[in-house]
Design a protein that fits this description.
Blueprint: E1 2-3, E2 13-15, E3 21-24, H1 27-31, E4 36-38, E5 59-64, E6 67-74
Parallel strand pairs: 1-6
Antiparallel strand pairs: 2-3, 2-5, 3-4, 5-6
Length: 76
């Protein structure tokens, strides 16, 4: 089931539709246009490495605040 859009939070771990994992970056990186970091490069919120639309949608939110959230599909 698809849930409504959730506001992304630093450190959110998501699974992209193409099977890659991404981590939401810090707000200062989001403001610069680099909101996502590849999870192989960082753990938790890090410096963003790609633009907002780069991770293949839909995204499935896996971890928020260090806790598994049950794989919420986020339609943006």
């Amino acid at each position: 089931m698809t849930q409504p859009t959730l506001p992304w939070q630093p450190g959110d771990l998501v699974l992209a539709a193409d099977g890659h994992l991404w981590v939401r970056a810090y707000p200062e990186d989001v403001e610069k246009g680099w909101p996502w970091a590849h999870s192989a490069e960082t753990v938790g919120a890090g410096s963003g490495a790609v633009e907002e639309d780069y991770p293949v949608r839909p995204l499935t939110l896996l971890v928020r605040d260090g806790r598994a959230v049950g794989g919420t599909v986020v339609a943006e």
